[in-house]
Amino acid sequence: MNYRNEVVKMLVKVTKLSKNEVDSALEIPPSLEFGDFAFPCFMLSNKLRKAPNLVAEYYLKKIKPTEIINKIETKGPYVNFFVNKNLLNASVITNILKEKNDYGKGPKKKEKVMIEFSQPNTHKAFHVGHLRNVSVGDSLVRILRINGYKVVAANYMGDVGAHIAKCLWYYKKFFKGKVPTKNRGEWLGTLYSEAVKKLEEKKSYKNEVSKVLQALESTKENNYIKLWKKTKKWSLDEFNEIYKWLGVKFDVFFYESQVEKPGKKLIAEFNKKGLFKESEGALIIDLEKYDLDVLLVLKSDGNSLYSTKDLALAAKKFREYKIDKSLYVVGSEQKMYFKQVFKTLELMGFKNAKNCHHISYELVMLPEGKMSSRAGNIILFSELQNKIIKSLENEVKKRHHNWPMKKVDETAKKIGLGALKFGMLSQDNNRVITFNLNEWLLFEGETGPYVQYAHARINSILKKAKYDLGKVDYAVLKSEEEQDLIKRLESYPLVVSDAADHYKPSLVARYVMELAQSFNEFYHKHPVLKADDELKGARLALILAVKQVLRNGLDLLGIEAPNEM
Fold it and tell me: Alpha carbon 538 to chain centroid distance?
């Protein structure tokens, strides 16, 4: 039952405001003593020519309590609504236990959405900075799917460009050792970093790299193209292993090399239509009248740019995949660029160009500053994996001496991944993250392991109870902590819906953190296993519902909920 809608109906009837106006104004009070919903009357003060508190009193006389909303009162300028707790307790808990994994699921939508995320460059190392993009993108895929959208998870790989020419030039000219058998993609990244340093030594080296780049852009097969194909596979194989470890799946992979020629063709087509103009031999589109400056779409030497390829890829997405909406998970430094690309698509006549959205996020910084593949000051993903597993193996062993190593490793991985993803998702996208693994791995504080541990603790209680719920009297759940938990459980579908509408996984992360905190407050004050039979049954049902919602919420973040920790 949607109690909020009941309150909205009551208010629409007496205020003559629209449903949207009432719903957007309706608030959740800071304390249960002020009710479950509060309606501020400031907006109606001028209309009725009364002070807000008198407006509240005026409407109080016009609204009658019902079986569902069984108490209504005023508090200053607010009309406060109290839900019938007996109905609320039973409907929320039984609904969760009935729907289980589907609790929070929205109705099917007609729109088909493509979410493009990760977008790593081959021949560069995958590092901790890439994890924010992957975590945000994967979580958005899960959140939009549970909200009923048809979602296509896409990855756009940077497999061409000057960075590859630098890497292969250094490999051919300076590398004399043996190619490693493991982490070869990561190793290529170290070659790229070494190449950047080497290029500072002699001006002639830059000319050599330019020749390598020309060879790679040649239409004829040559030794550099053969080497590119071979080394590219090393990177792609490693990326796939990383995605597997992270539990992230893609429906489609795009490659820069595949949209380069179509991009040039598209630019030529619209150049003939007069959309672009020449500037010093290059092609541009003047977007100054839209306050978007000028976008370069083709170099003076005829070579492509990111924009050349992005325009072609957007056209491919709309034409071949019949999507209604296209989301790009890319760093905030590209905000202006994507505004330019989307406006160009609109001017090209793509009807869905206005449904292209840049989901931007800020940098992941190290305590000592910004990470850079070019400078080589990055935390490599393999190093991160090893550090996490080693650290958590010892922690798990302390708690479970009799566990086999396989179970220890599996649990350590779940906790480690939970710590990483929660650390990346718990902050709003517009906030810079300072990566601090030691803090993120703690079982206390606002961390992933803290939320996971709440789930594991509930599982342990339920295991000891050997419960059979049978008939439960939910009316006995009267304490402030119990009511707080039930209100939070009831709000979960709305949080999931808001996270989809605003493209913010952080809303779900914040929700599961607060639910875990509320559970711990409840558990510290109220016995479950030692309560009398009637209360015990109701509390077992309550924490079973909490466990289910914690599991559902963590899943939307791409985090597993261990039964034991």
Answer: 34
